[in-house]
Amino acid sequence: MVKFYQRLLIKLQFQDLSKMKKLFKILSMFSMFFLFASVACVNDDGAGIKFFEGTWQEALKKSGSENKLIFLDLSTSWCGWCKKMKANTFSNKEVGEYFNSTFVNMELDAEQGEGQRLAQKFGVSGYPTVYLVDKNENLILSSEGYHEADELIQLIKSAMKEKK
């Protein structure tokens, strides 16, 4: 693609700066279109965990009304393993099917707002950290570190068996 632009610029032999600026804007918009189009296609299949987009208090209410535990992911914007877990584990189809049908799923930034309060309450010492929490904000399970899809499902299923 770069060679295409180079050849195009050589052929046009710009005489004034305004033509070059105009072409640059057009090429930039063209590139941005393809960038956004490719990003939109990456995970458009609907697979993976669907995280609740309300507040923590709303998630607690939903947990009570649906009689489900809350699966809580506390992470940070700078955590590489958090990003990897989001991209590889939380986007997994089997993980999504199990978690979406079983839990109210919530992800929060552990350094902001309710996420910060919960990180302090639950004593987070590393990221990513996932939790199972009941409607009264009681901790059922806490697990730090990266988990592959099958490992996360087994971890959560084991905790659910122990809870019963």
What does this protein look like?
- Strands 2-1-3-4 form a four-stranded mixed β-sheet, with helices on both faces.
- It has seven helices and four strands; from the N terminus they run αααβααβαββα.
- It is an alpha+beta fold.
- Helix 5 packs parallel to helix 7 (about 150-164).
- It starts with a helix and ends with a helix.
Q: Give the overall shape, derived from the CA principal axes.
A: elongated
Strand order of the largest sheet: 2-1-3-4
Strand content: 15-25%
The count of helical stretches stands at 7
Runs with pLDDT <50, length 5+?
A: 33-44
Estimate the mean pLDDT confidence.
84
Structural class: alpha+beta
Tell me briefly what this model is.
The protein is built from seven helices and four strands, in the order αααβααβαββα. The chain has helices at residues 2-12, 17-42, 56-66, 80-88, 93-102, 113-122, 149-163, and strands at residues 69-75, 103-109, 129-133, 139-144.
Secondary structure layout:
Blueprint lengths: L1 H11 L4 H26 L13 H11 L2 E7 L4 H9 L4 H10 E7 L3 H10 L6 E5 L5 E6 L4 H15 L1
Parallel strand pairs: 1-2
Antiparallel strand pairs: 1-3, 3-4
Helix pairs in contact: 5-7
What are the main properties of this structure?
56% helix; alpha+beta; single chain; four-stranded mixed beta sheet
